[in-house]
Amino acid sequence: MTLEVDVRVARGPFGLDVAFRVPAGSVLAVMGPNGSGKSTLLEAVAGLVPVTTGHVRLGDAVLDDASDGRHVPPRDRRLGVVLQDGLLFGRLSARENVAFGPRAQGVRAHRARAVADALLADVGLAAHARTRADQLSGGQAQRVAVARALAANPRALLLDEPFGALDAGTRERVRDVVRRAVGTGVPALVVTHDLRDALDLADEVLVLEEGREVQRGTPAALAAAPGTPYVARVAAAIS
Ligand SMILES: Nc1ncnc2c1ncn2[C@@H]1O[C@H](COP(=O)(O)OP(=O)(O)OP(=O)(O)O)[C@@H](O)[C@H]1O
Questions:
Q1: Which of 74, 85, 199, 229 has the fewest CB atoms within 10 Å of its CB?
Q2: How far apart are CA 122 and CA 128, in angstroms?
Q3: Which pTM does this prediction carry?
Q4: How many domains would you assign to the chain?
């Protein structure tokens, strides 16, 4: 299903104003300098920040429509979400964190555990299934958060810097896991500061500055012809 976003969002003096579509099975990378509105965009699509005008649609489902006040609560959106402050349940094990979504959907315990273990193995954390989340390193916790986002058959993925704390090899592995999930027909929005992530994973990149689109195109097109000094810097960082 296609994710369709056309929203204005106000956060104090900051305003976000964007419109785009992410087709089923494709990845839109969201890039931009600090404070440009990337997290605000994901939080709006997740239903955590109110949309002032506009709409968010996922396939046939209207998640937000400011014109008639429709708003699906975050927990009913069936999205796989990794947010910046998307903390794990510290007292639960890695496995329990990942199994939480499927369990909440009524999946039986042994099946949810099997799904969690498979995802933890995919992200290289099979040996940490029983480790309490508050005893994981930052990079391990980030991988558990990605596994958790993928566990409950999400209808779309919203990932805010999901690879930020990962070393190069692990980054590639986790990107593979995300790519496989997207390949099942799920649209994904992925915030990253690294054009390498976009080149590897994204079909398109949306660059935000001060809440507005300043450039959009394939990762290769951006790298070849940066439209702003910010894009030129991220392109230079990978050459
Ligand atoms: N909870 C909040 N309340 C009020 N304003 C906020 C809140 N969160 C963010 N903002 C403001 O919204 C603007 C956009 O912030 P946002 O976090 O979306 O940017 P970002 O592009 O994700 O930045 P970064 O790369 O630093 O994560 C900023 O001006 C910020 O100060």
A1: 85
A2: 12
A3: 0.95
A4: 2
